[in-house]
Amino acid sequence: MQRLIPTLRRDHVEEGLISVINTLQICAKEISFRLHQGELAGVLGSTLDENIQGETQKKLDVLANQLLKDILLENSHIRAVASEEEEGIVDGHTTGDYLVAFDPLDGSSNIDINSMVGTIFSVLPAPKDDRQGVDLFLQPGTNQLMAGYVLYGPSTMLVFTTGNGVRVFTLDQKVGEFLLTDEDLEIPADTCEFAINMSNYRHWQPQMRAYIDDLLAGDTGPRCKNFNMRWIAAMVADVHRVLCRGGLFTYPWDCRMPNKPYKLRLMYEGNPMAWLVEQAGGVAHTGEQRILDIEPTDIHQRIGVILGSANEVNTCLEYLQGSQSATTDV
Ligand SMILES: O=P(O)(O)OC[C@H]1O[C@](O)(COP(=O)(O)O)[C@@H](O)[C@@H]1O
Ligand SMILES: [Mg+2]
Ligand SMILES: [Mg+2]
Predict the structure, then answer these.
(1) Any known ligand binding at 109?
(2) Pocket flag, ligand 1, residue 308 (CB < 6 Å)
(3) Are residues 96 and 116 in the same domain?
(4) Which residues form the Fructose-1-6-bisphosphatase class 1 C-terminal domain (predicted)?
(5) Nearest ligand to the C-alpha of residue 65?
(6) Which of 125, 86, 127 is nearest to 300 (CA)?
(7) Suppose 264 and one of 82, 256, 269, 295 were both cysteines; which one would form an S-S bond, judging by CB atoms 3.0 to 4.6 Å apart?
């Protein structure tokens, strides 16, 4: 089975970017090791702090963030990093060609129940003009040079794209190396599976409720087929399933907190996952526009996310855009 670096060279990835990926996989192994030690490593539970998003930080959020920052910033190719857990960006090497944005630990609420979590990352080019600070990162997802995630599940997997398909590597714990286990993931265009946090049903827009109502009606409703539902509560794991066998994943607009109607973050979750999904033949949208086309205005910006199997995402968009009539009274 092929190792990581030879695969990247075969794909003609530039050497600087290979170095960044190499550093990311070192971080992944460090985090994976601590996660698999679990309670034995004393890393479970919460801290007394809140992150910049006002959410309680888990010890592993803090640890993973620190590991990624420390290890990435040793790499001279990296100009700066931005993290979901940090208010501002952290500067690296002024001559570095790359910026790395990351969600150090996605699915934090799963940590204490020994369920799946991951690290999501997005690599952007460092602008060559006089931009500084957070402005460096305010680029649309179409500028990404590499995007991916590490899934810490029963096995640890590294899944990424450099714009040439989606590659999957699995960590061989015996030799401590990521080995290529899937050359080119492809999402089937049709699906009978969806992922949404149903407990928020009453907070959604009527159009989203109408779409989900018709999925739930199964073969007795207008969709004329039964749908299955899955929710792992870690975007990284839900999207991994969609990449592996198709499906629709959404965290849509909701009205619980009017000043925070979206949950997922553009730079750390939306953009990298959107590019992976598109590279695998799927669609990734906010309900109003293609995620990768968004011009960010803030590094911690949040967006609506609907992604996955192309035909199903497009059907959902028809409901949201009003061209599909709902059978239920909304
Ligand atoms: O609590 P909910 O509504 O199930 O939300 C789960 C969603 O929140 C997230 O866990 C947010 O990510 P973080 O753990 O990085 O804050 C997503 O991964 C997931 O899709
Ligand atoms: Mg997250
Ligand atoms: Mg997180």
Answers:
(1) yes
(2) no
(3) yes
(4) 187-320
(5) 3
(6) 86
(7) 269
Quick one: tokens of 252? 């849509």
Q: In a structure prediction context, what are the per-residue pLDDT tens digits for the chain, which is 330 residues long?
A: 899 999 999 999 999 999 999 999 999 999 999 998 888 877 777 765 676 667 667 788 899 999 999 999 999 999 999 999 999 999 999 999 999 999 999 999 999 899 999 999 999 999 999 999 999 999 999 999 999 999 999 999 999 999 999 999 999 999 999 999 999 999 999 999 999 999 999 999 999 999 999 999 999 999 999 999 999 999 999 999 999 999 999 999 999 998 899 999 999 999 999 999 999 999 999 999 999 999 999 999 999 999 999 999 999 999 999 876 544 433
Let me know: does 268 contact 120? Beta carbons within 8 Å. yes
Verify whether ligand 1 is closer than 6 Å to residue 119 (CB atom): no
Look-up of token digits 């909701």: 254
Q: Residue 35 sits in a domain of what CATH number?
A: 3.30.540.10
Rounded to the nearest whole angstrom, what is the distance from the C-alpha of residue 106 to the centroid of ligand 2? Answer: 4
Q: What sign does the dihedral 39-42-43-44 (CA atoms) show?
A: positive
Instruction: Decide which of 182, 204, 219 is a domain's last residue.
Output: 182
122 appears as a binding residue in the annotation = no
* Distance in angstroms (rounded) separating the CA atoms of residues 313 and 249: 9
pTM flag (> 0.90)? yes
Complex ipTM tops 0.95: yes
Regarding the beta carbon of 103 and ligand 1, being less than 6 Å apart is answered yes
